[in-house]
Amino acid sequence: MTDTLISRRGSLPPLTSPKRASMRTGTRTRIGAFASTGIGVIVLAIMLFPIYWMVNTSLQPSGNTLTAGLFPLNPDFSGYERAITDQGQNLLTSLIISVGTVVLTLIISAPAAYALAQFRFRWINVALMVIIVSQMIPGVVIANALYSAYNDLGLLNSLPGLILADASHAIPFAILILRTAMLGIPPSIVEAARIDGAGLVRAFVSVVVPVSRNALITAALFAFLFSWSDFLFALTLTSTEEVRPVTLGIYQYIGTQVANWSAVMATAVLSSIPAIILLVLAQKFIAAGTTGGAVK
Questions:
Q1: Which of 67, 216, 258, 276 is most buried (most C-beta within 10 Å)?
Q2: Is residue 33 situated within a structural domain?
Q3: Domain extent at residue 248
Q4: Interhelix angle 261-281/213-228, nearest 10 degrees
Q5: What residues have CB less than 8 Å from 54, skipping those under 6 apart?
Q6: Which residue in 24, 77, 4 sits closest to 269, CA to CA?
Q7: 96 inside domain
Q8: pLDDT in tens, 112-155
Q9: In terms of C-beta density within 10 A (0-12 exposed, 13-18 middle, 19 or more buried), how is residue 42 classed?
Q10: Which of 96-100, 152-156, 261-265 has the highest mean pLDDT?
């Protein structure tokens, strides 16, 4: 009987201790984390390499991308000097247009989004559908329509014309973002302000705007980026050097600087700096603004 039990026990596989199992699990977890991190670093390096090459080329003395080394061992800033001289006015023009677009977008989209979020009317769903459909219209169609209207109104080659055109592209998107955030605002806090004697405008400015700060910053950032990177409206609605955004300046700059790419790339680097700074500074507001109102 005993020999039979011993033989049966000997035939069973050895049991693995909980400590050894946990060690194996931890090793697999670390290997998986290292593999995921390595893949992420490789993908990020591939995505950021064009930006690095843009900076590298802007610092090359020869200005030729074919003979440029992998590292700018002897950096030359003459390309930046030429870019500031030739494109400085265009950078300032783009900045004015982008700031004006942000102001106009928030002035129109914030009250509209609050009305669509708080008021309960049957036509609100129709209005939202119209806003969504307006985002699907190709930009070239809008640009051609604006050209005919601007020609009659005298808004061609003007800063207000470009601000209005860029705002027309940013306002529908801003309304959708702001409405999502304003859906979570309790009507009771606005009613409390009304009871204390505040009017509709005062209650909106003093209560709704501060509560929707993250969404407002997010909408403002996207409006700025829309306007800063606009090329189609600038190409269609301007034809003079007095009003020329930097995107159109780079496009026309390439044709005259094919032998000196350092100035072209320096202009691209300078035009990227405002967008990078804003994205870094407003990163936490973007995360909070895009998810605001999603969970109640």
A1: 216
A2: no
A3: 86-291
A4: 170
A5: 265, 268, 269, 272
A6: 77
A7: yes
A8: 998 888 877 778 888 888 888 888 888 888 888 899 899 989 89
A9: exposed
A10: 96-100
- pLDDT tens per residue, range 58-98: 888 766 665 667 777 788 888 888 889 888 999 999 999 99
Residue 242, by phi and psi: left (phi above 0), alpha (psi -120 to 50) or beta?
alpha
Q: What residue type is 48 in one-letter code?
A: L
Task: Confirm if 203 and 186 have CB atoms less than 8 A apart.
Answer: no
In this structure, is residue 51 part of a structural domain?
no
Q: Find the DSSP H helices in 119-158.
A: 123-136, 139-153
Amino acid identity of residue 295, one-letter, is: V
Which domain CATH number covers 168?
1.10.3720.10
Smallest CA-to-CA distance from 150 within 255, 232, 238, 252 is with: 238
- From first CA to last CA, the distance across the chain in angstroms is 69
Q: Residue 290 contacts by C-beta under 8 Å, 6 or more apart in sequence?
A: 177, 218
Encoded tokens for 35? 């593999």
Q: How far is CA 77 from the centre of its chain?
A: 29
Residue 129 counted as domain residue: yes
The pair phi, psi for residue 150, each rounded to 5°, is -65, -35
Residue 134, Cα to own-chain centre: how many angstroms?
20
Q: What are phi and psi of 260, to 5 degrees?
A: -135, 80
pLDDT at 26: 64
pTM of this structure: 0.80
Q: Considering its fold, how many domains does the chain have in total?
A: 1
CA dihedral 53→54→59→63, nearest 10 degrees, is 100
